[in-house]
Amino acid sequence: MVEIKKEGVILRKTNISFENEGVLNPAIIKENGKIHLFYRAVAKGNFSTVGHCILSDPLTVEKRSDSPIIIPEYEYEKHGIEDPRIVKIDDLFYLTYTSYDGINALGSLTTSKDLKSWKNDGIIVPKISYEEFKFLSESAGLIPDKYRRYNQFQISHPDSDPIFLWDKNLIFFPRKINDKFYFLHRIRPDIQIVSIKNIEDLNSNFWQDYFSHFKDHILLSPKYDHESSYIGGGCPPIETEYGWLVIYHGAYDTVNGYVYNGCAALLNIENPEKEISRLPYPLFKPEEEWELKGEVNNVCFPTGTIVENDRLYIYYGAADERIAVASLNISKLLKELMMYAV
């Protein structure tokens, strides 16, 4: 097993109103020698914005903003901007997050050239009802009981506002592959993958065809006990000599609710739709007090990484209330993963 070090909590909630309920699930990126951390800040009533701080090293906060840097602007995100992830492709930063309007939770994109001003590209995952999803994917012989179990609660009601299938954990690969954008997204309980020439091509026709061949786009499904209920994307994929290293989350059900673990897999470099390997055990799991008790107990939810001198630092939401870091030797992790290559 890979030796992992729990470095501890690096960011906690404050008394400032925009983050007085919790700070969690951060995006992280290093640019011009500075480590930027963009985190979900939760106010009373579960209203989320994005806070920002700068780290002087992987574990030390140097500067922290006293107000959110990204706030809801549109009706579809009026209840919150949740769980950001970030990559840089060419000269543009792509920050993705979950838009929440109080009913629907859907992946959205905002871009920046300087990490200061942001251009909102809106929701880029499908706005599709459960009924339409069921109809299109059943035509391809899918929708087993697991999809019904996790998504049927989103069945539309005649007099309600539109209810769409929840589509979260939108995460871009950090470069184009064969001249295409690739990104992960998650309709429970699996992780799906998308490739597209241009972001603008993600229209209703694209998604109709996508769901008509939905089985072909399922990248990872729950496989082991520690991820038996469902899985979801975690951190942006990391390019390595062995493949794309994906740190994701896996959940399993207990009498006390779900337990969320950090997990690891490898994907093929030129064809990331192909899984090479997966750890058959959790990379790390809730063990410390800050992971076991909080707004939601028993949660390690990884969302960002940086690599410094062969050390992989994984940033994660701990019990949905605070931000912690775990670290490990990335070379040893990759060698361990290759032991389970298929």
TrEMBL record:
CDD domains: GH130. InterPro entries: Glyco_hydro_beta-prop_sf (IPR023296), Mannoside_phosphorylase (IPR007184). Keywords: Glycosyltransferase, Hydrolase, Transferase. GO terms for molecular function: glycosyltransferase activity; hydrolase activity. SUPFAM superfamilies: Arabinanase/levansucrase/invertase. Gene3D superfamilies: Glycosyl hydrolase domain, family 43. The keyword Hydrolase applies. The keyword Glycosyltransferase applies. Transmembrane segments: none annotated. PANTHER family: GLYCOSIDASE. Belongs to the glycosyl hydrolase 130 family. This is Predicted glycosyl hydrolase, GH43/DUF377 family. It comes from Chryseobacterium taeanense.
